[in-house]
Each structure stands twice: as structure tokens, then as C-alpha cells.
Amino acid sequence: MSTVHVVALGGSLLRPEEAAARTMWMGQLRQLMVHLEGNGRRIGLVVGGGLPAREGIGLAKEIINDSEKLDQIGIAGTRLNATVLQQILLDIGCDVAPVVPHTIEAARLLLEDHHIVVMGGTVPGHTTDTVAVKLAATVHARHCIIATNVPHVYTKDPRHHDDAEALTEMTLKELGEIVGVGTPLEPGASTVVDPVAVGVAMEAGLDLAVLDGRDVRRLDDALEGKPFEGTVIKA
Ligand code: UTP
């Protein structure tokens, strides 16, 4: 099989609150996918749940206190967003798998027949970061790209600490010291990289790349193996 890339696309990137920027971003992402497909690349896009996941979990949380059930609602949100991107790519004529797979194995098989596979979550207990890391390890991708809405991994959460410093290179062990390793987050909760994904990457010996997916050029650079603005995380 030709080079396979796996990208976790944070659900926040679909930015439902910013219509103009959202339309531009989807257009740029579409162009990038057309270009990569033209170069014979295979791409697994694992899309986060963003607003629909948060909204659904928030609604149900008023009456349900079972994290597995809340996770199922989150997964439904990720699949909704995945379907949005899948249809947008199909519309421009990309060779996208016609189904949104529910398992890593189904995604692996679809990547043998299609240039692009778009999926969301799989099972409760982790976020789509973990799905992307597992898929990247399964298809022997060079690294797993985590495209999110912050430019780097920081020494501390920059939303709460003014002295947080941006990191450009670090190890998985160092990332684990910041976000934790292996312990699932609460349904709908978020850190720069899901701690479960950090644990899976450590076991697989897989490098990660964290970057601001709102700037599609950064994603392009990382996919092309060029230096990119973001954080390189070595296994
Ligand atoms: P996301 O992958 O969207 O979480 O999953 P996130 O890290 O907050 O990503 P953004 O905000 O979209 O960038 C949303 C929720 O769906 C459930 C979890 O409850 C998660 O918090 N989920 C998702 C699963 O249980 N399993 C999965 O495989 C994926």
C-alpha cells in the first residue's frame, strides 16, 4: 500500500459558530485532500465530535450519570461530523469510502480500497485522538497528526496559566507528565491530547504531531514531512 497518513481532526475545527471561517476551512481542507489523493496518498481522517457531541452529552447529563452511555452519545456526535466531511469530500469527487467505519479494522480494510476514509469514534472510554493513534499504529503510519485548535502543546494549560510555555519538541513521556497516561477523561472533557491516546502511542512506539488545524498549511507541511509549526512528540 502507498504511504498512509492518519489525522485526528478536532471537532472544534468545524467551528459551527464562525460561518465564514468554517466555509473557508472546509474548502481548503477539500483542496488539500484532492492534492494528496492526486499524489497517490492514503489518508485516514478521524473526526472529533465538537459541538454536537458536547450538546448531546450536556442534554443527557441532566438525567444520565453513566459515562458509557454518555460516551455513546459523544460517539454519535463524532460520526455526525465525520459524515459531514465525508459528504463534502465525496461531493468534489474524492475517492472516499462510502461508509463511516465503526472499527479500526473496518477502517484499515477500507483504506486498502479507497484513498480517503473518514471516521469518528469507535467504543466508549476514550476520544477520537485514541482512535487516530490506534489507526496510525495499525496502518504503520509514520506518525499520528493531531490537528486541534491550539498551536502547540504547552507546559501548562494556557487557558488557566499566563506563564504556560509553548513546546516545539518533546517526548511522549513528557507529554504524559502534562496530560496523564491511560486514565480516561470524563465524557465530553478535553485535554490537548487524550491521556488514553498517549498510553497507546507509548505502547506502539508511535510519534505524534500536534498542530493548529485551523491553519491548513500547517497540516499540509506535516503531511508532506516538512518542518511544521506545532509540537513534535517523539516516542
Ligand atoms: P471527541 O473525540 O470529539 O473528544 O469525543 P475531544 O477530545 O473533546 O475532541 P474535540 O473537542 O471534538 O476536538 C467526544 C466524546 O465522545 C466520546 C467521549 O465521551 C468523548 O469525550 N467518544 C469519542 C468515545 O467514547 N469513544 C470514541 O472513540 C470517541
> Termini separation (Å)?
24 Å
* Overall 3D form: globular
> What multimeric state do the chains show?
single chain
Percent strand equals 15-25%
- What's the architecture, going by CATH? 3-Layer(aba) Sandwich
Please give the radius of gyration in angstroms: 16 Å
Briefly note the CATH topology name. Carbamate kinase
Helix-strand topology string:
EHEHHHEHEEEEHHEHE
**Could you name the CATH homologous superfamily?**
Acetylglutamate kinase-like
Unreliable sequence segments: none
Q: Helicity range of the residues?
A: 40-55%
Structurally, the number of domains stands at 1
Q: Structural class of the secondary structure composition?
A: alpha/beta
Topology, element by element:
Blueprint: E1 4-9, H1 19-38, E2 42-47, H2 50-61, H3 67-91, H4 104-113, E3 116-119, H5 128-138, E4 143-148, E5 153-154, E6 166-167, E7 169-171, H6 172-179, H7 195-204, E8 207-212, H8 216-223, E9 231-234
Parallel strand pairs: 1-2, 1-4, 2-3, 4-8, 7-9
Antiparallel strand pairs: 5-6, 8-9
Helix pairs in contact: 2-3, 4-5, 5-7, 6-7
The chain binds uridine 5'-triphosphate.
